[in-house]
Design a protein that fits this description.
Blueprint lengths: L5 H14 L1 E10 L12 H17 L4 E11 L10 H11 L5 E4 L2 H4 L3 H15 L2 E4 L4 E2 L9 H31 L12 E6 L2 E6 L4 H14 L2 H10 L5 H7 L16 H8 L8 E3 L2 E3 L7 E3 L6 E3 L9 H21 L17 E3 L7 E8 L5 E8 L16 E3 H15 L7 H45 L5 H33 L1 H14 L8 H7 E7 L3 E6 L3 H4 L4
Parallel strand pairs: 1-2, 1-3, 3-4, 12-16
Antiparallel strand pairs: 4-5, 6-7, 8-11, 9-10, 13-14, 14-15, 16-17
Amino acid sequence: MGRVSKRKASRQQTEARRDELRYKAGIYARLSSDQDIKKNESVDVQIEIVKKFVEEFNGQKKGEAIDVVECYTDLGKTGSNFEREGFLRLLQDIRLGEVNCVIVKDLSRFGRNYLEAGNYIEKIFPFLGVRFIAVADGFDTGKEGNENKQMASEIKNLVNDMYAKDFSKKAKLHLKQRREEGSYVGGPPPYGYKAEWKGKRRVLLPDENTEGIVKFIYEKFVETESYTAVADELNRRRINPPYQYKKTKEVYHADDAISYKGWDKGAVERIVKSETYAGTLIQGKTSITARNEKNRIRKPEDDWVVTENAHEPLIGEELYRSAVEAGRRIKIRTEAHRHPTKGYPIEENIFDNVLYCGVCGRKMTRSSYVKQYANGEKARLDGYFCLNGGQTKVTVCPESNRISKNELLDILLPLIRIEFEVFLSKPKRYMEYGKERIAEAVKKREQKLSETEGKIRRFREEEGSVYMEYRAGKMSQRDYVSFKMKQEDRLEELRKQQQEWEKEKKALEKLETKYLAAIKALIKLKNAKDLTKDVVEAFIAKIYVYPGKRIEVLFTVTADSMEGVR
């Protein structure tokens, strides 16, 4: 027989391949949500079975061939709905024309919902020109005579559907039983805990790296009564939020601040409102629908499974109750802010920093309300009262102590005019006195500020040294977190001192202008309405209010103190 040239043979093979009908196949594999490996082949096994089928199929050389272009998988997903990430990605590639053949190990891996599975296999895929093959069931929509197997596939899909519903009921009963036994059946454990198996129960145990952070969150919230303030403090310390800690296992974020996402108000609120940290496990608050796992239905409280003392609490009962009470007060304030009195805004509280109860020394609280008169007119009225006054639980202030803003102004204005009558005509002498006092005060603040900044630098150097030990493996993350928390508390105190000195220094530097403006305001003062917060605080240190609407005023500068000024 004559020899065939390589070029001619190659051309014949190319022509043969052109005559073949080639399919671009996507292999789909799914592992059931029960994750029972003994009953469900792993996705790797399913894919291997399909690939072996494709290899044998191509070896038969029947004028058609299959090229596997992609594998699509869904792990731990129920077959009773088709809202699965891998399956949706497969549909997208089908629409783009990148896949025109879907191959599964068997029909149950494709889906257990009879109606939807049948809809895809018999309507959607044929309409899109997609061939569907279920290897183990011998089902292939591209084969002639496949119509004879349609009834068998429908029966198998119906059986799968019934199995899914039966399994769903059994799974829910099993899940409820585990919850009632106090076993943690959720996903990732809450921030501050880790989950471990103890016999047949999965329990929550304190995470030594983050349990201190949780306690810090509660303490800071009780102190500030603000979710945002706590989040800001965590972000300032560059503490990783729960999702980031779960991903990196690092409590503190790296130095690249750009990639730091941080905490938000919601993350703090979820932790503060969770009874989990007080040792109580509440499960079964929601349930998912069979058709869409993302669609959660909130169940009534009577259906929740509550297990007290289910695990070790991270915070004490007293601290938790304090946090609950703080949250209640926030809710009351928020609801009040949602319904302001339109057209009658609350004015500046000019006595905010100077008004005190003369009996117990407590700062007076302002009350502000809108009064409607008989003729229909409205007016906002302000007053002040002592929270201790007349309270049965407090003995330091037995009488009610109240005064209205108008009554206070009527008493205060004549006192101011009498006190400053002597030297208001000599503003230049007063300014010289003020400048001397301001210069002395500024010098003291600068000295204190320099001392504080030096302490902060030394603390930072110590922190850098300890961090290098932690990164070198000479210190555990637990010890590093403990050091870091203590260090941050000490640094926070120093930073507060630094801010306070800077604030006082800036305030003093502005005082000269402020005093001059206050003097001009006093000279022009004609009635109580001209009083402002700056004027009050420039000349008055404290105002003590006594029952019976009596007041005592302590001036920062008096006529007597001006006598020695030259």
